[in-house]
Specification:
four-stranded antiparallel sheet; 47% helix
Length: 249
């Protein structure tokens, strides 16, 4: 079991304890706790390969003992990527806040500086040898790369939220338009039924009302056809359509 002692060689810049290869541990900061229930502790494990930023390329997450006890195969409760974890959470706990789950711990695990293969299985070792300027440059490089990775995470999280918002707006507006057209058809049917009444004395206004309803239905269906363009994404249709039909600017 790896000991999470504070170490000077932390490429994440988050003061996280670096870990050696093939180490295992439980809980924070590299695995979540108290999910899905209070007292649940997830496990983690490091591999061998490193990323250019000094963090492990291979890292694994394990289910809490309570959830893995009924599994026949270890592979069924071992996750080798964030995507596999996300798929498991969404399918097994559909009401869970996935973003909050990943925000509760850090996926990146910094490696100790010496004795690890670099980005592969060869004998190359990552060391901190060299002049002070080289060390400073290396640390600055690691910091810049980590900043870029953090920005990518933020961008993708923002994109996902934006897409979820667009989907919700489109869903509400399209269903509202369908219901509106449905109501127009029902109104038209009422007028037609009234026209068939044997006691009818003045049919002119009803025929006029039928023509108006049919024209209104035609216009609303044309509007719906414009709204269907949203299937290509909000960014691919005109702002006028977004503003008029979806109240989205």
């Amino acid at each position: 079991m790896a000991k999470n002692n504070r170490h000077n060689n932390d490429p994440t810049g988050l003061n996280l304890p670096p870990v050696a290869a093939d180490q295992i541990g439980q809980g924070l900061p590299y695995a979540p706790i108290n999910f899905p229930e209070q007292g649940d502790v997830w496990g983690w494990k490091t591999g061998k390969r490193l990323q250019p930023n000094g963090c492990f390329q291979d890292r694994y997450l394990y289910l809490p003992e309570r959830l893995s006890s009924g599994s026949d195969s270890k592979d069924q409760h071992t996750f080798r990527s964030k995507l596999s974890v996300e798929r498991y959470i969404r399918s097994t706990f559909p009401d869970a806040n996935v973003d909050a789950f990943f925000a509760s711990f850090t996926w990146r695990i910094p490696a100790v500086a010496e004795g690890l293969p670099y980005h592969g299985t060869g004998p190359t070792k990552v060391t901190m040898t060299g002049s002070t300027s080289q060390v400073i440059l290396r640390e600055e490089y690691h910091s810049q790369i980590l900043n870029l990775e953090a920005e990518i995470d933020d961008i993708l999280a923002g994109l996902r939220k934006s897409q979820e918002l667009e989907y919700k707006v489109a869903e509400e507006r399209l269903h509202a338009q369908k219901i509106y057209i449905q109501n127009l058809y029902e109104q038209l049917q009422c007028v037609v039924t009234e026209l068939e009444c044997p006691d009818l004395t003045h049919s002119g206004p009803l025929f006029r009302a039928i023509r108006e309803k049919k024209e209104q239905i035609k216009q609303e269906k044309e509007k719906f056809n414009e709204m269907k363009m949203v299937a290509s994404g909000f960014g691919r249709i005109s702002r006028d359509i977004l503003k008029e039909h979806f109240a989205y600017e």
